[in-house]
Amino acid sequence: MQYSFQYEKPRVLQGLRVHFVSRPEVKIMAYAVNIFAIVAAVLFYMHKIRPQAFLLCSLLWFILMLIFWFFMPRMVYKRAQKTFEDQYIATFNAVGVGLENDRGSMSWDWSKFSNYFESGQFFHLYFGPRSFFLFPKTPMDADFIIHLRALLGEHVRKGRT
């Protein structure tokens, strides 16, 4: 199975957001901040703390949102901008994944991938916790997506990192 694709910046940024927000450490931090906010709101309502604690929690939540939703995806995109501007041809077969562009080609056996998951716009194939590759779904037709899901299901563990 083979298809050609080129990345679109807004979609890549969204795919990177999905990656960052799905990280276990980010989820734990978000839960901790939410619990802190609820406790601060209850204590503020009971007049046990001053409003500064509740405002601090709101500020923490706002900063986390800015970092993981805006700054980190843009930093990653900027660092790998040449990668995201190229035109690619991806090949999926029983042996693994091949990728080629004007500058060269690369192939990986299925054993190189630790896991994968599918988001709304991408297939995220992970080499490890922080190393992954995004394959956009927009140029794929429905049959290709069905076949790719089956192929990935046979060779790579499904799940987020």
UniProtKB/TrEMBL annotation:
Domain of life: Bacteria
Transmembrane regions listed in the UniProt entry: 28-47, 53-72
Keywords: Membrane, Transmembrane, Transmembrane helix
Protein name in the entry: YcxB-like protein
Taxonomy of the source species: Bacteria, Pseudomonadati, Bacteroidota, Chitinophagia, Chitinophagales
